[in-house]
Amino acid sequence: MSNSIVISASGLTLSYGHTDIIKDASFSIKKGEFVFITGPSGSGKSTLLKSLYGQIKPTVGELIVGGLDMEKISHSKLQELRTHLGIVFQDYKLINEWSVAKNVVLPLIIAGYSIDVQMTQAKRLLNHVKLSDHIDKYPLELSGGEQQRVGVARAMSKNPFLILADEPTGNLDDYSSNVIWDLMENACQQLHTTVLVVTHRIPNVFSIPYRHFIIENKGVYEVH
Amino acid sequence: MKFIKHHLTFIFPMMAILLGVEFFLVFDRTTTNYEQELREGYSMFVVAKEPISIESFQKLDSHISQREEVKKEVLAKQIAEGMSKSSADKILEALPFFYNIKFDSYLHTSKLEHIKAYLEADGRIKRVETFGNSYGASYTLFSFIKFTFKAFVIFMSLISLVLVIKQMEIWNYEHKERMQVMETFGAPIMLRSGVLFKVAVIDALISTILTSGIFVFVKYRWAEESHIDILMHMQELLFQPIDFAILLAMSLFIVFISVYLVVFSTKGQLQ
Lengths: 224, 271
Hints:
The structure holds 2 protein chains of 2 kinds. Chain A is α/β, with parallel strands linked by helices. Helix content of chain A is about 30%, strand content about 30%. Chain A has a single domain (about 30-55, about 75-225), classed as Rossmann fold. Chain A has a 6-stranded mixed sheet, sandwiched between helices. Chain A has a 4-stranded antiparallel sheet with strand order 2-1-4-5, with helices on one face. In chain A, α5 crosses α6 (about 145-155) and α6 (about 145-155) runs parallel beside α7 (about 175-190). Chain A is globular, with a radius of gyration of 17 Å. By secondary structure, chain B is an alpha+beta fold. Chain B has 2 domains: about 1-35 and about 150-265, no CATH class; about 45-130, Alpha-Beta Plaits, CATH 3.30.70. Chain B has 11 helices and 4 strands; from the N terminus they run αβαβααβαβαααααα. In chain B, strands 2-3-1-4 form a 4-stranded antiparallel sheet. The longest helix of chain B is centred in the middle third of the chain and has 52 residues, at about 135-185. Chain B is elongated and about 100 Å long. The chains are: A alpha/beta, B alpha+beta. Chains A and B meet through α2 and α4 of A and α6 of B.
């Protein structure tokens, strides 16, 4: 496998119990690519995304993420891999007891960075997501769009090599959606971060090149 | 208010467990002391044809710990009072050897009967006498009280443990999503469960201090003023410094087990 390949799936099958959700999928994604995965509800988009951060193990076939075989990966290696990923959830998954700033720097806390570094990074990222006035607030004091911007800032706080986003703009207004797409485009273009977004529909205005995969009848197909 | 309630719902059952443990320790010390008194007050009187050493007695039964020889000269002198010296010498020569034997532990009456029978079967021994009537009654009553108390303490501790686990389930519910989010971002187990550990260790420490405080109060204030003989007599056995360490170790052990149970039950998929 080439060093520039970040994700590689070969004959990948993902199942819940005895039910196959994704069957015999093969694809690869290179460093710095922006990828959309679309498909109808229940088609297995989120399941595929979960398999990329090790929440679900492949039933059959091979799945390599960041050079690690997700079927054979040890607990400690998976933990290590996750510290280099940025994950964005549709329902934000912020820690409500923590301030916005602390939520943003969760990956830095896990990595053991000093408070000074954490604060500098929190201010920088919150400025990027246009929430610098909300640094000391708590998630429940923010709107849904603002919470998702915090979620995106969190995903980017440790400069991950791969951002995985599950319906990041699913419930958001146009303004918040645009801010989030801008952030992801910038991460991809300027930092060469690979971004993989699971979504119902691709935004109408999208300024950088991207690849598009669709999930249909349990298969993963690239749309050209 | 909610914060205090959450702490108290952990502290109270933890205290119940620790009180059970401390009662157990005090009871064990007291009964060990009482057993020793009973054991020391009990002996077998052995009449033998020839001298028997302590080693020979121990070969017959390993529980025999002491052998006191009753001096024949003293007995002969008392019997031969007013008689001639030659008669006294003949009496001394005719007298068998007398021994008082004691045991190393508090033995069941059936075991004592067994030892007695074993001694009587030995050719060197003519007769064995025991002073066991009050011993037997004490043993039965004492064993019953001991069993009942220990059963009660274990039962109470189990009930309290269930309450501790219930409280842990509430914590589990409160912290589940936070811990799962942290796990998804690769946080190690100690970081994920840091808050739970902090809260639980503080509560365990408070429980230990309160439980120790109760017993220190009972020992230094209440026992003295109670005019209850056994409490005044056994005051030293009521609470000892090592008990604090035992209670703290026990509470921390329960905390670590409970927190790990919660942490492992929250592993898995984010919904």
